């Protein structure tokens, strides 16, 4: 599938619908976003693409973690944009 390049958007971004992003140490380190993380996520949203941030930090509730990420990344996100280990455990048990 060919995609028209929009401004300086890399071609790979145009050909994908969903971006799985590692959060801890890749998008942010502790409470500091890494360079261009916010810009990258905002570009994904601007293109109408979906993203999920994967985090292995389940030391706090999903809502608290989501609030934290919204603040440090300065990006509006929903619970669907965050996947924590507890989400996988819950999904496994609800299928049984």
Question: Could you explain how this protein is built, in words?
Answer:
With 96 residues, this protein is α/β, with parallel strands linked by helices. It has one domain: HAD superfamily/HAD-like (Rossmann fold), CATH 3.40.50. Helices cover 40% and strands 17% of the residues. The protein has 4 helices and 5 strands. The chain has helices at residues 11-15, 37-46, 62-73, 85-95; strands at residues 18-22, 28-29, 32-33, 50-54, 82-83. It has a 3-stranded parallel beta sheet. Strands 2-3 form a two-stranded antiparallel sheet. The longest helix has 12 residues, at 62-73. It is globular and about 45 Å long. The termini are far apart.
Main sheet: which strands, in order across?
A: 1-4-5
Q: What sort of overall outline do the alpha carbons produce when their principal axes are compared?
A: globular
Helix content: 25-40%
CATH class reads Alpha Beta
Distance between the termini: 39 Å
Q: What is the gyration radius calculated from CA atoms? A: 15 Å
Give the topology string: H per helix, E per strand: HEEEHEHEH
Mean pLDDT: 88
Largest β sheet strand count, sense and barrel closure = 3 strands, parallel
Structural class: alpha/beta
Fold blueprint:
Elements: H1 11-15, E1 18-22, E2 28-29, E3 32-33, H2 37-46, E4 50-54, H3 62-73, E5 82-83, H4 85-95
List its salient traits.
96 residues, globular, Rossmann fold, two-stranded antiparallel sheet, 17% strand, alpha/beta, three-stranded parallel sheet
């Amino acid at each position: 599938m060919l995609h028209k390049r929009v401004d300086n958007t890399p071609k790979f971004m145009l050909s994908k619908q969903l971006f799985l992003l590692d959060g801890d140490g890749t998008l942010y380190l502790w409470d500091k976003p890494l360079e261009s993380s916010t810009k990258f996520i905002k570009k994904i949203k601007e293109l109408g693409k979906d993203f999920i941030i994967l985090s292995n930090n389940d030391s706090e509730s999903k809502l608290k973690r989501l609030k934290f990420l919204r603040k440090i990344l300065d990006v509006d996100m929903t619970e669907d944009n965050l996947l924590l280990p507890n989400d996988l455990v819950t999904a496994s048990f609800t299928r049984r």
